[in-house]
Design goal:
- The protein is α+β, with helices and mostly antiparallel strands and 157 residues long.
- Strands 1-2-3-4-5 form a five-stranded antiparallel β-sheet, covered by helices on one side. Strands 6-7-8 form a three-stranded antiparallel β-sheet, with helices on one face.
- The termini are far apart.
């Protein structure tokens, strides 16, 4: 009778152990899956946020008196916006510098010092391509793998 109870106890303990191990495996796999989904979601958010910022900036500055164009000087792809404020010409440059998308506002006549730009977001790549006089293609990659693109239509061009 004692042996019969100890065999039942061992079987019950083994079943509890197997159940516990199964639960632990499900929790570990679930947490790894959640972590991967969260990372992908963050990368996607960063891509969209960068493009949305650039899009909003262009929409705000898209006026007949302003000049907006993609520029490729010195191997640096920039979005260049020229505006007049109180008779003085100012430029806003949006560009990639040292792994960050940056924005620099300065007088047009002075040479831009790109290291002093305001950091918008981290990124691996950013490029601007003037498709036509009123269309600019913006390509941005946060992680170097996935590239998000947006076409910016300039109404004032």
């Amino acid at each position: 009778m004692i042996r019969k109870h100890s065999l039942h106890t061992v079987i019950v303990m083994l079943l509890i152990l197997i159940f516990t191990i199964s639960i632990a495996m499900v929790l570990v796999n679930g947490s790894l899956g959640y972590k991967k989904i969260a990372e992908n979601s963050q990368k996607s958010f960063d891509d969209r946020t960068s493009l949305s910022y650039i899009n909003a900036k262009v929409r705000y500055m898209d006026k007949e008196e302003n000049l907006i164009f993609a520029d490729n000087t010195d191997g640096l792809s920039t979005l260049h916006i020229v505006e007049q404020i109180d008779g003085v010409s100012y430029s806003t440059w949006i560009y990639l510098h040292e792994g960050s998308i940056k924005e620099l506002f300065a007088e047009t006549d002075s040479p831009p010092e790109m290291e002093y730009g305001f950091e918008i977001a981290k990124a691996e790549s950013l490029s601007f391509q003037q498709v036509s006089s009123n269309l600019i293609l913006v390509s941005c990659s946060i992680d170097g793998k996935n590239t998000a693109e947006a076409y910016l239509y300039l109404r004032s061009a």
